[in-house]
Amino acid sequence: MTKKELKKVLLIGGGANDFGRESELDVATHQVIETLAGLGIITILIDDNPYSLSLEHPKVKAYPQAITVANVRNIIEIERPDAVYPAVGGTTAFQVLGDLFAQYDFPNLQILGMSLDAVNMVNNPALLAKRLRQIGEPVISSQVVNSVEAAFDIAREIGFPVNIKPMAPKFEASRHTANDSETLDLVLKIALKQSRIKQVVISQGINGLREVGVQVMRDHHDVNMLIGAVEDIDPVGIHAADSILVTPVQTLTDREFQRLRMAAFRIMRGLDIVGTAHIQFALDPRTDEYYVIKVSPYFDSTSTLVSRSTGYPLAIVAAHVCANVNLTRIVLPSNFAKKMAMIEPVMDRIVVKFPVFAFGEIETAGIKVNRRLNTMQKSVGSTIGIGRSIEEALEKAIRAAHFSNRVFSPDLMSALPENDLIQQLIHPRDNRILLLIEALRRGYTIDELAELTKIDEYYFYKFQHIMQLEQAVKHNPGDLALLQQAKYYGLSDGLIAKLWHQDFDDVRQLAKNNDLQPTFKAIEPSAGEFPEDVTVYYSTFEQENESERLGDKSVLVVGTGAFRLGDGASGAYVTATILAEIRANGFQSIIINNNPNDLSLMIQFADKQYIEPLEISDIMNVVELEQPAFVLVPGNRIKLIAALRERNVNVCVIPKDKYMAHGPATEEHEFAINYYFDGTDVHPITITEHVIGKLMLDKNVYTQIYQQKIPKLQLRDTSPGLYQLITKQLPLSTDLGDYILRPVPFGQIAFLNKVTGINWVRLMVRSILGCSTEADKVLLARLPDVDFKYQVAEMVGNDTDFFQHLQPAGELDSTQFEMGVAMHLIK
Amino acid sequence: MTKEIIDAMAMQRALTRITYEIIERNRGINELVLVGIKTRGVYLAHRIADRLQQLENTTIPVGELDISWYRDDADIKDREKINIGVDVTNKRVVLVDDVLYTGRTIRAAMDAIMDNGRPASINLAVLVDRGHRELPIRADFVGKNIPTSQNERIRVNVEEIDGIDEVSIG
Amino acid sequence: MSKRYLILADGSIFEGEGFGSRATTFGHIVFNTAMTGYQEIITNQIYHNQIIVFGAPTIGAGGINHDAYESIMPTTKGVIVRDVAEVSTNRQKRMNLNEYLDYHNIPGIAGLDTRALIRHLRKTGPQKASIVDFPDEHAFDQLNATVLTNQQVAAVATPRAYPNPGTGSTVVVIDFGLKHGILRQLSQRDADVTVLPYKTDAEEVLSLDPDGVIFSTGPGDPRDLPASVFELMRTLQTRVPLLGIGLGHEIFALANNAELIQLPFEHHGTNHPVKEVITNAVLYVPQGAGYAIDPATISHDQLIVTHLDLIDDSVQGLRHRDFPAFSVAFFPDSAPGPLEGTTVIDEFFDMMETKDRF
């Protein structure tokens, strides 16, 4: 196909959030829209995720529809775009695009960044493996068999361990590993049963190898560059999303590293991919061999991790090169050094990504789950810790993943029986870091542990250092030299206070009195070589502080941290919207957050970003430096709010409940009357009806029938925002005592924003800041008799395969344990 | 069985080296004209011209020559003057072809050029010299010497028409 | 470990924890932003009399490996880093970085705010520095009084010839303090190599009947080298295919009437894009130079600019107009660093293969 001028591009979104799909696609989409608009290219976006901020981008033509072949085809017929860009929609977009082109011909539609062949290879691992072999890249040998005998033939040939995966499984099935004949017999039986066509794929087992991911960029003139590389502390065999990740790469020699870099470039060339891709390798350090395990020419959580960690504007650059702009000609926004787009990023910091699991929450609800980590993703979110050493970054990441250090207390494991310890060393669970440190404490040698766990000894030296430091601190209360060391290596005030049996304020004060103050360092891609106008910072304890106070009119927003089960991605949506609105009202906005996939960390939304844990001491460090006019904190952080108020911080609460509420039981209906509280008066908005896995809104029905009977709600001593009254009874009672009052969950706010066409979050921010406009007042006075953008709409829980991921012993409430939702805008 | 003997990178390198050698040999690029022999020689000539443009910021004229009717085995009466699209009189002509084999093509090409004017000199650049010459002709610039049997087939692919840069034997 | 200090000629003091040797040393201070390859960097003789600041936050995770030396006797004067890894020494890793530096009498300072230091150096530029136990007046007096030798090549280059036999092309390497990476690249291509001291004369070189000659990397300012070196270059370039690398590139340029300028900001790292002018291709290459060729002094009649750094526009490659002789400022042996620059070595071999035609 000849390349013609690009005027109009269709972006295929990623749909509902799920395991392995946080807001990273939305983060990329938003920047792609902005970048293409800057190049004079019109964008169209199809997506049905109510938490999508990109759908609200003023420069995109949004189709809030389900991402299906029929819908995409229809949009192509209407809009006649020159090109379609699937990289912003992950695997969903690739599947739909593959199916679309299999059924229809679009002679004038190009796929940005790759050929249809490459799309099909992404969708079909066998095709990809074939191509990789053709270009001489090693892949894991695998074969499809339909009998136990044939499988054993293969196993005899390639040797144990082998992995077995059912073909065309009845549900998305995980890989089984067999180390011996008995296990192979067993897993073959299971896998053959799981397969609809009674076939399984048998492949060479590579568990225990080292996993390294590289993020590369390539332009139309075959300029290839390496943006970043990420190393899994855990070996192959634990899903990358459940692994602890480190960037930059630590344990590879230059030669090993450069080999992977060149391999990645050959793959980009061999598949003719333009733009960015994340390529994963398994590396055998003993034999120096490597295998390509995955090629992802789309945005994913690694691309956002690399972008956040390096400070390199990955999505902006990818959008440019896909629009035929050479890497050498890209003009970046003014805050980047002039030629930064073509400089390979270097780092003078360490970033550790730590997975967040929801086992605790689920088990609290009385449902047992399988905590053992394997090739199927179990984590529901992640956080990053940034520091100048592994120890510091790791400590900060752990702290960011767990609001309270209680769950990661160093003494937690001391009672674990020896047998369990060994079992868990071999079959790791979510808490393995504590386990590894406990094993070191019990005198296991580093060589022994490295052998047992296949984790590089380098990390054990780091764990050992943390353990020794904790022990030393514990046994020397008040020791200043140790306090200095502890801070330098990332131990928190809270942890030190716990070890010393002191109040954390005393620890803070002692540190302050002795000039042990945090210093903030900029996150930029040149490691100090070029002066850059950067807005993203992290803290450490060193000589130079680079962050200066913004000014008198700043507002600090405390982010929602890692995604957990519940309306995780909506937290990102709401926080980013809050930041944007703060700026729109003449304030400067500052965000403190630590989820790499979070929209709120995009530099477009705030004047300053602090990537930090969200404990009280971390927040106070920023508060003391910035002295913001207000600090906005989500209402679920009850202790934090109290602690900040105790310290005379001007806190405004963003209404949010501590826990996600239960949804209605099967067959039950629940009704929510939603109100907007402007700080003085309460204004009814609309009624929504909830059944299991679904929320419905039909403006006419509910408003007409129940308008007269809506109870008069009065609120005092609480923040402006959205609240709802919940009942199971119809007709509606006028007695408030028959209802449960709660803040409207963020997810429902996002949905209401999209359906009503009124941005309630922005309205709330204006109420909080005292910046309400005349138009706001007029609108509120007219409620609920205002026109909604859509009259009938639904929000439906994503069909998350919990069984596959977590193997729970009972049904999971899809409202309380939501992974993602889609919206249907019906009328 | 075909076997790749020059990959894309090596082909690029060979053209780059030939370009530098042309500059060295001619002590510059004054009065230089490239004439590509159809089909693949033309693309190679353009690539050399692009390289010269990059280095010297000067556009070198590229002529094209289809010698299928010019071979000495064709009937002499059918010979017509072929327009190669560039003026060669008093120019230093570099003929460009993909493979040098018997030399008959080159001889025909030289005849065709002579029919078009009187060049100051003619040099020959080829990507592959596979031997088996039947005429006293040698290339001045060679990408790679590849000894071959007469039964073997050398195939030069160029990205412009074959989608890939590669020389294979088989 | 105990407190040690890095002091700069401009009067600044940086504090950290000493590792490696306890020696007090003086040197020029440079920073390198490469994220891998600490062993190769430390053992590269271009860092003779230099104190290296690593931008990478931690180094040493892979210990010291037999196949990553760029020289046997490193002559760097110090290693400054935020965090140095402690790893055990076993069969693969005979030494860790701490032991290695101690063995070679090189001091290191860890736990230092290297980012602040690099940002400082960005503003103040190249200068002398010293690693000391106490940053007192005496230490600064010593630093100011220290005159660093300008005979750096003499200190690191081989005094006598040695062979590195192979079965392929015959290559003579003129040693100015070469990186082993160059020899490794030649070995991979089966070259039959003889390394000669830089004070060799042309007859001696030609008597070995080489297919090609390489002028190697090395430390320091080429203008401090004896005139014979440039004479050697001028003679050899007309006789055999020739490649200059690093210092060898600067010699090639000076021998052909170009002049040198000191870079306002030295770039040591592997992340700058370099354009190959003839094809517009972009390579990422290892670099480490304090000097560059002044483009205004390059005679168009003699030299062609073949490579340009796209960030600072410095000349990264030259080629002689009349002879098969060329040079690159970067390190095409890629040890450490991206491998795409090794095509320069391939080009040199192509050139030797076809030299009979001249």
TrEMBL record, chain A:
Keyword Ligase among record annotations: yes
Top-level EC class: ligase
Catalytic activity: hydrogencarbonate + NH4(+) + 2 ATP = carbamoyl phosphate + 2 ADP + phosphate + 2 H(+)
Cofactor: Mn(2+); Mg(2+)
Location of the ATP-grasp domain: 129-323
PROSITE patterns per record: ATP_GRASP
Top-level taxon of origin: Bacteria
Family listed: Belongs to the CarB family.
Family annotation (PANTHER family): CARBAMOYL-PHOSPHATE SYNTHASE [AMMONIA], MITOCHONDRIAL, CARBAMOYLTRANSFERASE FAMILY MEMBER
The protein's name in its UniProt record: carbamoyl-phosphate synthase (ammonia)
Automatic annotation (TrEMBL), chain B:
UniProt-listed CDD domains: PRTases_typeI (cd06223)
SUPFAM superfamilies, A to Z: PRTase-like
EC number: 2.4.2.9
Keywords associated with the record: Glycosyltransferase, RNA-binding, Transcription, Transcription regulation, Transcription termination, Transferase
Record-linked Gene3D superfamilies: 3.40.50.2020
Listed Pfam families: Pribosyltran
Keyword Transcription recorded: yes
Superkingdom of source: Bacteria
Domain Phosphoribosyltransferase positions: 2-147
The keyword Protein transport is annotated on this UniProt entry: no
Cross-referenced HAMAP family: PyrR
Function: Regulates transcriptional attenuation of the pyrimidine nucleotide (pyr) operon by binding in a uridine-dependent manner to specific sites on pyr mRNA. This disrupts an antiterminator hairpin in the RNA and favors formation of a downstream transcription terminator, leading to a reduced expression of downstream genes.
NCBIfam families attached to this UniProt entry: PRK05205.1-4 (NF003548), PRK05205.1-5 (NF003549)
Subunit structure comment from the entry: Homodimer and homohexamer; in equilibrium.
Similarity comment text for this entry: Belongs to the purine/pyrimidine phosphoribosyltransferase family. PyrR subfamily.
Name under which the protein is recorded: Bifunctional protein PyrR
Organism of derivation: Periweissella ghanensis
UniProtKB/TrEMBL annotation, chain C:
Active site: D333
Catalytic activity: L-glutamine + H2O = L-glutamate + NH4(+); hydrogencarbonate + L-glutamine + 2 ATP + H2O = carbamoyl phosphate + L-glutamate + 2 ADP + phosphate + 2 H(+)
Transmembrane segment boundaries: none
One family name in Pfam for this protein: CPSase_sm_chain
Record keywords, A-Z: Amino-acid biosynthesis, Arginine biosynthesis, ATP-binding, Glutamine amidotransferase, Ligase, Nucleotide-binding, Pyrimidine biosynthesis
Annotated metabolic or biological route of this protein: Amino-acid biosynthesis; L-arginine biosynthesis; carbamoyl phosphate from bicarbonate: step 1/1; Pyrimidine metabolism; UMP biosynthesis via de novo pathway; (S)-dihydroorotate from bicarbonate: step 1/3
Record-listed L-glutamine binding positions: G218, G220, L247, G290, Y291
SMART domains given in the database record: CPSase_sm_chain (SM01097)
Region described as CPSase: spans on this chain: 1-170
Protein family according to the UniProt entry: Belongs to the CarA family.
Protein function: Small subunit of the glutamine-dependent carbamoyl phosphate synthetase (CPSase). CPSase catalyzes the formation of carbamoyl phosphate from the ammonia moiety of glutamine, carbonate, and phosphate donated by ATP, constituting the first step of 2 biosynthetic pathways, one leading to arginine and/or urea and the other to pyrimidine nucleotides. The small subunit (glutamine amidotransferase) binds and cleaves glutamine to supply the large subunit with the substrate ammonia.
The protein's name in its UniProt record: Carbamoyl phosphate synthase small chain
Organism whose genome encodes this protein: Periweissella ghanensis
Gene: carA_1
